[in-house]
Write a structure and sequence with these properties.
The protein is built from one helix and no strands. The protein is an all-alpha fold. The chain has one domain. The radius of gyration is 10 Å and the shape is rod-shaped. The model has no long low-confidence stretch (mean pLDDT about 80).
């Protein structure tokens, strides 16, 4: 489902930002 994929993407992004405290995706 698209919602699950979108949620996974957001969770991954939030986790990345939470850990690095800096933009992880360029």
């Amino acid at each position: 489902m698209v919602i699950v994929l979108f949620y996974a993407l957001i969770k991954d992004l939030v986790t990345c930002i939470y850990i690095r405290s800096i933009n992880c995706v360029e």
